[in-house]
Design goal:
Layout (H helix, E strand, L loop, with lengths): L1 H25 L5 H8 L15 H12 L4 E5 L4 E4 L4 H4 L11 H4 L4 H14 L3 E10 L6 E13 L5 E10 L1 H22 L3 H13 L8 E7 L2 E7 L13 H7 L3 E4 L6 E2 L4 E2 L2 E8 L6 E9 L7 H67 L5 H31 L6
Antiparallel strand pairs: 1-2, 1-5, 3-4, 4-5, 6-7, 6-12, 8-11, 9-10, 11-12
Helix pairs in contact: 7-8, 7-10, 8-10, 10-11
């Protein structure tokens, strides 16, 4: 009958409202997780419906959901997690499937690292904390190298026993990796000032990069000469020494960096030796002439996302290498110029020395001859001519000696 149907529908609506009110009584708030926790079917989980939760769990959940700091509680022997909105970046693609489901099953990538810590807190009740804890997380579709400032504390139940683990975490991945990348860039800057030979510079720069294999799994540097691109530094394994295995022609022709798929090459990197999927092939331009002088290949860590920060890091490496090579080239050219000048000075000094020897010999003979003539009986006209010859010869000898002294002075061999 219509009246019965109305009463039945009205009763269902009342029950829904009562149910929502009961949930809202526990977790009132406007965040996404307030809504999800209130709507979740907790009766299907090991911790049961909200109304049967221990008061301690309700209180902790309210505090977590209202906090603006990444927080999570893992409750009971089945490790059931409840977390807040600010915990989303820590779980990535695992949200919202992580909510209400066993943590060790949904976060199987992180469990081998954090599982023993959570179990220890549950068993002993003793807190643990770490300022920069490394956790492998698959939250963006690949196994990511992440770091957390983390604290795990015992969460009591209503009887005072350990009912769960209260986790506070802060993702400091960007800070840790950023510091590491800055160290590499600093080393490259120091290298560019300390090494002056182009060959040594190429090897030194690549060696510094290879020491930071967590951020750059491999590197290969090619410079142009008359016969084409030549491998001058970096990893020596094939195909890193063969420029034809890479899109170097496109890079040089179009003057663009290319992100190249290297998953099939079997190259590994990162903390867990995963297969490298991407490499950046970049052109190197002279810092002084802006001419293309080579190509650099830099592997991208399989545990880092090739995002804007990573691309900026790679671009900065390439720019610093270009500056270092330009500095080394300028230094080498200056050394060659100085060496050429020194050789010119040596030739000039030898020439003036030989010239002075060749010219002083006849001049000395003329001076000596004129002196002998002046010791004989000469008329006035003859004596005047002899004195003029002697004076002119002595003047020429003085000029010759001054020219020789000047050439020695220029060559830095003059003795005072």
């Amino acid at each position: 009958m219509p009246g019965c149907r109305f009463n039945k529908q009205f009763s269902q609506v009342v029950n829904i409202i009562k149910s929502d009110m009961a949930k809202d009584r526990y977790f009132q708030g406007s965040t996404t997780m307030h809504r999800l926790v209130n709507e979740f079917d907790w009766a299907s989980t090991p911790i049961g419906p909200i109304e049967k939760w221990p008061e301690s769990l309700k209180t902790l959940s309210r505090a977590i959901l209202s906090s603006r700091y990444p927080m999570c509680i893992i409750w009971g022997p089945k490790f059931i997690p409840i977390y807040n909105d600010f915990y989303f970046p820590l779980v990535g693609e695992k949200h919202p499937s992580l909510l209400g489901n066993p943590f060790d099953e949904i976060s199987s990538d992180a469990w081998p690292v954090v599982g023993s810590l959570i179990e220890s807190v549950l068993e002993t009740g003793e807190s643990v904390s770490f300022p920069d804890f490394q956790i492998p997380l698959e939250r963006k579709g690949f196994l990511e190298e992440t770091y957390f400032s983390m604290s795990l504390s015992a969460a009591p139940d209503d009887a005072g026993r350990v009912g769960g683990v209260f986790a506070i975490g802060n993702d400091i991945t960007d800070q840790i990796i950023g510091i590491r990348r800055l160290e590499l860039l600093t080393q490259l800057s120091i290298k560019s000032e300390a090494i002056h030979s182009i060959g040594e510079m190429c090897v030194g720069l690549c060696d510094s990069i290879m020491q930071h294999c967590l951020d750059v799994p491999f590197v290969s540097l090619f410079l142009k000469d008359e016969s084409g691109l030549q491998h001058v530094g970096g990893n020596s394994t094939h195909p890193l020494q063969d420029h034809t295995a890479w899109p170097t022609d496109r890079v040089l022709t179009e003057n663009v960096s290319v992100v190249y798929d290297v998953g099939s090459l079997g190259l590994t990197g990162g903390p867990w030796a995963n297969t490298v999927q991407q490499a950046v092939v970049a052109p190197i331009r002279s810092n002084s002439t802006n001419a293309l002088i080579g190509v650099m290949i830099l592997g991208v860590s399989p545990n880092h996302e090739l995002d804007e920060k990573c691309r900026s890091f790679v671009d900065t490496i390439v720019r610093q290498v270009a500056v270092a090579l330009s500095n080394a080239d300028a230094y080498q050219r200056e050394r060659e110029r100085v060496a050429a000048l020194e050789q010119l000075d040596r030739v000039k000094t030898a020439f003036f020395s030989n010239m002075s020897h060749e010219m002083r010999t006849p001049m000395n003979a003329i001076v000596g001859g004129s002196s002998l003539m002046l010791d004989t009986e000469l008329n006035t006209e003859q004596r005047g001519l002899a004195e003029m010859v002697q004076s002119s010869a002595e003047s020429l000898i003085t000029i010759i000696n001054e020219v020789l002294d000047y050439s020695k002075l220029e060559a830095g061999k003059f003795e005072f």
